[in-house]
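Good morning,

Both structures are done.
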Amino acid sequence: MNLTFYKSKRLIFFLCCDVFLFLLSIFLAFSLRFSGDIPDIFYEGMIKAGLILLVLKITFLFIFRIYKVAWRFFSLNEARKIFFALALAELCFLGIFYFYGDFFNPFPRSVIGIDFVLSYMFIGTLRISKRMFVDFRHSNLIDEENPCIVVGATSKALHLLKGAKEGSLGLFPIAVVDERKELIGTYCDKFIVEEKEKIKDYAKDGIKTAIIALKLEQEELKKLFDELISYGISDVKIFSFTRNEARDISIEDLLARKPKDLDDRVVATFLKDKVVLVSGAGGTIGSELCKQCIKFGVKHLIMLDHSEFNLYKINEDLSLHKEKITPVMLSILDEESLNEVLKEYKPDLILHAAAYKHVPLCEQNPHSAVLNNILGTKILTDVAKKNGVKKFVMISTDKAVRPTSIMGCTKRVCELYTLNSSDENFEVSSVRFGNVLGSSGSVIPKFKAQIANNEPLTLTHPDIVRYFMLVSEAVQLVLQAAAIAKGGELFVLDMGEPVKIIDLAKKMLMLSNKNDLEIKITGLRKGEKLFEELLINENDVRTQYESIFATTSQKVDLQILNDQIQALVKSENPAQILKTIVPEFNHNKDGDYQG
């Protein structure tokens, strides 16, 4: 109710002002035309023209939605719209005058041009007047706001400074710095741009907050962050133009590695009008696969998961696309029901992300890991082949390389089974990658929870390292690999440089201003190893995408592998049989493996 009243009040105010200014404009235009002495003979034409122009100008201002713009959002874009609205109004009047000139005569046509200029000046000045007052007044909230330095003299910085003046950010900028020499000494809003090294002096004076108003790649952002910390800045924020907020820099910002070869066009061409089934659709990888399938235009998406909550969540996330999605609550171990689903929906492509992935839990429940990961994958592969699915992509893991855990070894067996099932009618490929940022059960959400509870951060080993990638980018690379797959390929994603987890923990404590919290070393867990590997050997070749490698996978006799899988399923202690299938399996069953 209050918002509606405010909008109505604003509309009435602007309408009244505009009516007055438009009438004043036509009078002054005539007055200027006749040097201040308008002959009586022209008054009738002036009144007629003024009223018609008034209606036209107000109409076009409504059409261009000028009356919906609040004072504080008036910008060059709105000024441009007013220019076009008034120009069209004058052009329409010229058209009327051309056909009905006698109605206005005598009427000097030069008045139209003068009226246009005066109208634009009056209307523009009215709307920018409050902006001018706001922009140049001294903030009265300085004592309540957080003083900060803006890094980067950019359009983002101008937007940030505007928001700070209006009090919407809770920040008080005191300086703008930039490392680009051509900008030093120029003005950014009312600030003279200073060199970046000046941050040291501001930090000595007690300023602890810096807001980054630059668009940077991950490596550049990480370098700038480290530089700001070295200057003495303890609170680093990033300004988001779309959200109009300065948010705290996150560990994801510093770790996210942006692949340079993401190819939307290839993925869109590959997925367009396909029927796609995603297994494990509610998991971290599966849900992102579902979202990107919808984004890139699949005809129909079957989302398969045995977790009710996970399936509910992804179904809600994609609720705007209900006509294109079908949630199926089903375990991949249910061969009969799975067969019915594939018969009914006839998918062209299966993206297999369903798996148990948590290393310690799989160590404690090896039989369940074998059933879900190996037997489930075998059943899904066999049913897909039987039902004429053209393409099958299995999501694998870096832990399948020279595995030391039950989970990693089960995924290696899955690779062997699926890839050796590939033929000319059933193209199967597998894609390996490392950790995705923020995935359920991973180290970053765990550290965040411990920091939130003011608990010590627990780390298994001071030298442990891991690869990280944003889930959205990892999934798009998976889809790109699927697009170029011909069958039988084992793809490996380039995850960039590995991250030392103890350094990650220290950085997260720093970002949270919780440097007082302890980091506890608990010892390697069963199945865990210090260094994850992605590439098996030096013969791996780069594909047409520099972030995707292809490697060869071992050929096995499927009949023998089937027999071994049946033995695994019946065994309560499957480690020995897994070692037979995967000779490089070096089980770290005691948690002391260092490789």
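Second structure follows.
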Amino acid sequence: MDKDLQRCLDLLKENTENVRHDAEGALLTVCQNILCHPNDKQFREVCLDDPIVEKLLPAIGAMECLFDLGFVETADSLILPPEASLFKLQALESHLSESCIARHNIVDNTEAYNLIPKTTNLKERAFLTQIVHQFQSVLRFENTILQKKARRLIPITELQIATMTRIRELQERIKLSNENSEKSTEGLFKESDIDANELFLMELMHWFKYKFFTWVDSPRCSACMGNCEHYKTVPSEDPRCSRIEIHKCTNCEALVKFPRYSDPEPLLTLKRGRCGEWANVFTLLCRSLGYDSRYVHDTTDHVWTEVWSMHEQRWIHLDPCEDVIDRPLMYEKGWNKKLTYIIAYSKDEVQDVTWRYSRDQTNLMKRRTVCSENNLLQLIESLNKHRQCSANYSPSRKQYVIKRRLLELVELIRMPNEQNSDNNESYQGRTTGSYKWRLARGEVSQSSSGANYSWDVSKYGETFHLRYSIVKDVYKVMDDDDRMLEEILGWQNGVIEIQGSMFRKVENDWKMAYLARFSEATSGRVKWSFVVTNPNLCISTFHLQAVIKTFNEASISWQLEVFFDSTNSTKSLVIPINDCANYYANQLEGSVKLILTATVFGGQGSNAWQYAQLFRQSLECKDQSLVINIQLKKR
């Protein structure tokens, strides 16, 4: 190794162990980023306010390493010039990788692995060994230094303000609902039902998906910025990385590395990956904020997070990839997954939570053939006892965890018997990842009918005000004073029909969101239904405001179908809408049902599907994407 670089490394050894390890990890991340993307300018630049620099500054010899590698200082960053040799950088990366491997190998988990039940079945032993390994791995979320780093990245004040705004809206809604309800209070939503902690989690997850983390199917080519496709997977010598995917550019055929990190620390800087990386970092963020959280692994290849709700005394399902909370049947009913084993891991315990996520017990049990139920249960009990009886484990914490687990076991025992408890629920297919990737995995919903939902415009009085935000993906019904009366999450849950496989697209690079058709569809159509169920009322006027954007000869057309008799479809007329930005119709007197239809079609080239964008808005935009006002009158 170069003498100057060796001198810098010798200086690093003079630091305390924690400071040195932090600095070595940061230097390793810098080296690997550049070596994986040698021609990408963004990886050759380290901003001075980057968390990586915070790890380097306290360490003697760390910044000296960067300067010796050829980095030069600008006003607000350190940059490795394109002409700088990568020879020293490769040598440093090799040295730090070996040091990191040696450090990780010091940990001895032999005792936990000895708890695996005796079995002659190699497949079963591999499955049980993986459970032990994962149970050991979740302890990385308990690193207080790492939690502190993660917490600094969260805009806590901004999320608290958003949470308070949501609470005030709910309070207004409860007040109005109670004022308009009958004397009986049975079934009413109360202010005591509002949990600020859970509402904060919703805001945290929304920020995480749309402002912090990025989904990656294949990385961009670092040479020509073209699209890449998976080429092969190779093992990694870095213990923080489970494997390295090699992707090939479809344009210049350059090979691009995509390390799949299982350690959340480098991901706090990289901020990208697929569901494994998403769940790792999001679980860490939850732990850094003090939530009792656990990492949930579905053996049919997906991961997410659960958080214990003190308010509801149960574990809440959170999927940061989908920005979905408390929808555990989404995978079975929306993604069409044939579930087998779903295991949750926390610092306290490991638990088989499969029954929270399935209502098909008979068929699921037929698929659980990898391991005997007795051996699985025995290992879980042994691991929990081993963890909770360790020397540093608090007796009071142990009692708390035992009580919490009893509550969960009662819940899980009951769930398989609730076969038809949510037949009216609507679940969508997976939204993250390319359509081709999701289709190959069988995680695209086969339903094209949407939620089959109709808005009853007469239950709010003689005025109906509907607002939809593509950014927050939520419908809100407002009163005349702009107070919220009702809220429905998910654009598809407020429509009566979807044709052409429409989906909500979020462009994290451009910070935009919109509805579009899938690439395989020549057109897409969304329909909203508005009905009058009060026999004493009818529709008088209709007002529409909608945001759209088209490119390259693509088009979006609108029409309004008006029904004057809900039982006779012949008594209707169709009105084309030429200007959706501000359309007003007053020839509707006496009508009792409206069907609003938006159709996207046309466009040139391979990306034609993307050129007709319904409700396109910036992720920073607070304006409404769709506004519908309906005035009613007495018959």
